[in-house]
Batch of 4 targets.
Target 1
Amino acid sequence: MLAIDSTRKMSFNRTISNGDLAIVYARHDNMKPVTVSEGSVLQNRFGVFKHSDWIGKSFGSKVFSNKGGFVYLLAPTPELWTLVLSHRTQILYIADISFVVMYLEIVPGFVVLESGTGSGSLTTSLARAVAPTGHVYTFDFHEQRSGSARDDFEKIGISSLVTAGVRDIQGEGFPEEFAGLADAVFLDLPQPWLAIPSAAKMLRHDGTLCSFSPCIEQVQRSCETMQSNFTDIRTFEVLLRTYEVREGKMESLEIDGDDGSNGSLPPCKRRQRSDGASVVSYPSSSSVMARPCGEARGHTGYLTFARLN
Ligand SMILES: C[S@@+](CC[C@H](N)C(=O)[O-])C[C@H]1O[C@@H](n2cnc3c(N)ncnc32)[C@H](O)[C@@H]1O
């Protein structure tokens, strides 16, 4: 996934080999992870695709079926993996993940501690953020879940960046060997306040903590606990609005303000409304329209960040 070569440099110009994992992309809502295996075929409504035709092509290639149908073969980036992984638990999605990586200030070389591992959705992004010299240590008390996550990390090529351990973090805390060494800690646990004192012990001075909780009562209790060792405690709820972009016919259109002078819209007439607003009219034409998606995801949870005193 991260295409880290033996010199630990990242390369994004990779070709597909036998045994690689590829994301078979038909549409943004129709993707599937497939392990490339010479001699195997992929069959879907677009026809039959021979894996042997894929080997040697670069990630991103368009490949054709026996019926002339096509799909794209994409590299399993963290963004795509989050969309196709098997959900063994609730997972973090892209909006929350991006915010976490940014607000925890994660950069290459960082040591990050995480619990619980869950389905490993966040872990893959943490791994890319710390690569090529950092490391993510992720813990879950559910042995089978931790094992499945470890298998996934191997499959998508990040096992050199992640160690998945089995441990009750709420009961035992993080292992003592990490005391003072973690640059950032992330918690997605049912009772995070039980693990916060251990997180404080693990963090280096000025290190950052984030706790994800679906309920505000969990947030309140976590914040109370954080007050003993942390400063700059802030809670966010990340709400994402997705738009569907479609080509269609517009009869006539009136927009406040924009005169289309940046070239993105066809020539138009501008007039002043009685309330002072400037309205721009476009003649009827075929155009690209964007409207909010009906299936937009609402509340996922609250993200509480804090910095060690
Ligand atoms: C919601 S999932 C985490 C999902 C993960 N953030 C992701 O993006 O895929 C919560 C995980 O915490 C684990 N867990 C619950 N209590 C725990 C504890 N005391 N110690 C370690 N892990 C725990 C659960 O087994 C579960 O896998």
Target 2
Amino acid sequence: MNLILIPSKLGETFEITGEIPPSVLALEDDLVRSKGPVWYTLSGFKTEEFIEVKGEIGTSFDFRCGRCGEWIPGEIKKSDFQTILEAPFPESIDLTPQIREDILIDLPFAPTCQLDGEYRCPVTGETHPPSPEKTKKSLGNEEVWKALEQLKPKE
Ligand SMILES: [Zn+2]
């Protein structure tokens, strides 16, 4: 429970910031586990009929690399969190379910570590070069270069 008091004033924005313990995400499995708290920096706007809340939420976690099986640190940051509550309003609200859902939706589906320019894993130091045999057979020269371009870490 992470209760936020609703101000009584209408037509004014109010700020909501805070942290929720990572345990609310219940992220403890073989592929991902939460690390830091879930933080939020939101602003709300209240009218007689509704309260609109929007802003940034995020958290940090470790995920299991699909390539080498090691734990890799990851981060989620969403700047487009938004939720609308309709009247009648209670004295305080708990946005934990909405924030939790938004974070879980954003988890990487099949995460892998980011290889460096020499196809080296940053965690294990092992190299994972793309198989030249395969690419030669199935792709033309130009397409191979395009494929290699995509393998480069995006910075
Ligand atoms: Zn790796």
Target 3
Amino acid sequence: MVTRFPTTIGLLVSLTILVSCTSVHKQEPPVKQQSVAPESILTTTKLRKLPALNETDTIPLTNQVREFKLEAKEARWQLVSGVETNAYTFNGTVPGPTIRAKEGDIIRVILKNSLTEETSIHWHGLHVPNLMDGVPSFTQHAIKPGETFTYEFLANHAGTYMYHSHFNSIEQIDKGLYGLLVIDPQNPGELKHDKEYTMMFGGWNIPNQAGGQTKQGQNDSMSGMSKGSALGIKKKGDIRSLMEHGMEDKKSTPDPHAGMNMPSESPDNKPGSTVMEMDYNYWTINGKSFPDTSPIEVKYGEIVRIRLANISNGIHPMHLHGHDFRIIAKDGHPLTTPQVVNTVTVNPGETYDIDFIADNPGQWLFHCHELHHTTNADVEPGV
Ligand SMILES: [Cu+2]
């Protein structure tokens, strides 16, 4: 039995464990629901009985060096069919290649800067020596165009982390200069997962689309795609205008923050992000917007782990249909008592590891419940 979890978004993915369909897959024939013992789907007994992740106390060195070559360079990147942009990439992709090692390994990253501006890499969440922290003018010089810099540090704690530019960070990160950093434990403990997925959330400002800004001198070709035309999707509802209206109301009432120059006063500011002054109009999971996000396909009964990492400046309450899941680690640290939930809010800079048992057959969504984020250029995918 196959279970696909459509991932969408904007921030949306599909998960299939076979039962009924959303509009995304309505061309498929209806699937007969498998008869399942009620206790296996109406309770979280099995899920709660799963062990926790192991915590790391001390690790012997492995004497292994894991070497990675990264090149920061510009590349065209397709967010979704018909929508391309000039991205900043590591090795031509967004996110860049996942850097993965085992606790006790030495990680060596040789970074070549082929951009036309300076850059650096910060290892987000891992405790590295100060000189390896990647913060220009504090711990190293900014890496100039054409220069190469080598980072080297110990993989000292299992977990889900990120790496990203720490030079001109808002612009370089929002253009795609980031990737996932995963450290595997030396002692994995009792908890075993049948499948593992990773999801890195990004936000984009694509000019000349609804909600997108065109800065002076910026000319980003959209390959002829008009708003929503490639997706065949319905117009968005009133939520955005309600939100705008609400914001205007606030301004007409006495403002306790008067004099603080709140960013909502900016004429350029538009809603669409949970963080003011960000003007994202596309949201991506692993560099892709729905419907080009990759579905999750799992078999009935499999235990599935998903590593979530938010490098965008938006807040993403990720919600799974049809199942509860456990939060088993936050920012790389195992929870001794995993929390059972159906939604986890992933703030900017945070990572979460979650797991669930695929025991409710069907096609289910896993999506951001900040519903502005399930849109592409203000157009809802129609889920
Ligand atoms: Cu979101």
Target 4
Amino acid sequence: MKALLLSKYRHLEIADVPTPAPAPGELLIRVAACGICGSDVHGYDGSSGRRIPPIVMGHEAAGTVAGVGAGVAEFSKDDRVTFDSTVYCGACAFCLRGEVNLCDYRQVLGVSCSDYRRAGAFAEYVVVPARIVYRLPDNLSFAEAALLEAVAVALHAVSLTPVAPDGNALVVGAGMIGLLILQALRAADCKRVLVADIDKSRLKLAEYFGATEALWAADPDSLDQILQLSGGAGMDVAIEAVGKNETVGVAIDSVRKGGSVILVGNISPEVTLPLQKIVTRQIRLQGSCASAGEYPRAIELISSGAIQVKPLITAIAPLGEGQQRFERVYAREPHLMKVVLTPGPALRTMDSLISADRLRLSPAPAEVWGNTWHALWRKPGLTWCSPVAIAIVYCLLKRRLGRSGAAQFLWNSTSANLRAFRGWLQVRKRPLAIWISW
Ligand SMILES: NC(=O)c1ccc[n+]([C@@H]2O[C@H](COP(=O)([O-])OP(=O)(O)OC[C@H]3O[C@@H](n4cnc5c(N)ncnc54)[C@H](O)[C@@H]3O)[C@@H](O)[C@H]2O)c1
Ligand SMILES: [Zn+2]
Ligand SMILES: [Zn+2]
């Protein structure tokens, strides 16, 4: 099978590796979508030390059952499924208590460290124990399902300190995880959710997802604003989703006496703590790691629309573009949120791109246009009018994205998706939709 192999740090290549076979109790999954996680990026350059090459990374995935190991009765071939990123043993004291995220024998898919090596899902197939697999409802696309892991992380963090319905909460960091925590808080009926970030485009997304107030954390007055908005006493709960010294400090400074700080971010190995403040104000510090049993709820919340993940998907690209896509995430390209790689046939990308476009996140539309360009060329019988079509598309493109966007459009044509273009026009309700809807 084909797999995206990290053969050395910062070098990914498509390699032919043996297709794994499911052992008793395991399932062979044909991977349809697998998201690039921040931890994969920290593994890619070797900084985390948890992706020692050679390794196939990837743990945020979904697909269909392609093979069933002996003794597995709950699943059969072609079932649409996702799976936990944590492979837990199911038998240790923690697992028996339901704290599977703390399993003594915990392994994470796509991780190789000094303790273990476990192939991940940036490949056509992956093998996982059936106990970590969940069935997907039909209305949940594979690309959305690839974000379930992050949603489960957010639900777990929120579950650790329930907020009273009339309570308030602060989320520090409006990245992937922070925005999902915000939505998880809203889904848990928390009426007032403040979100702080230093990136204004992320704050825009926070507003879109229902933040009561989105605060620019680079403003020296932001802490005063938080306290003011809480009525002076401080927030009931602060959930930290960045993982730096200063943001942990903000979270602690923002909560009221007796309040709770949930620590989710962990990019820094250590931070300093205002010990006396924590003790005398009786602040509870609570770490939150991965998830423990939140997948079914996460599936329910996405399929009901209570939590939206489509706007967080910036791009869906074939596995073959893995190296290039990793480099772009690694380079912290602006407006990039989740990139989903597809080892199998291309997925329809339009829905996510439309959502991103509505939020005016600039790179996404260029891909729509790129696809359209390709589609126009490939449509049989269109050759004679291609120059006209190109001219029209170019004019539209230039108006929306400017000259550089137009250039991007020309180079970005990677896959044919005419329906995508039509869909985009219909959403935009442009009269041109009539012309193009042949
Ligand atoms: N505990 C867990 O189970 C778990 C799971 C996944 C991720 N994480 C951690 O959660 C954190 C966030 O992950 P992510 O994927 O959302 O990352 P991300 O890079 O998408 O988001 C981080 C956000 O923090 C913001 N930020 C940076 N400095 C800031 C500051 N000084 N003040 C306010 N905001 C600031 C950035 O602008 C960005 O929006 C990371 O530390 C990651 O390791 C933890
Ligand atoms: Zn992850
Ligand atoms: Zn266990």
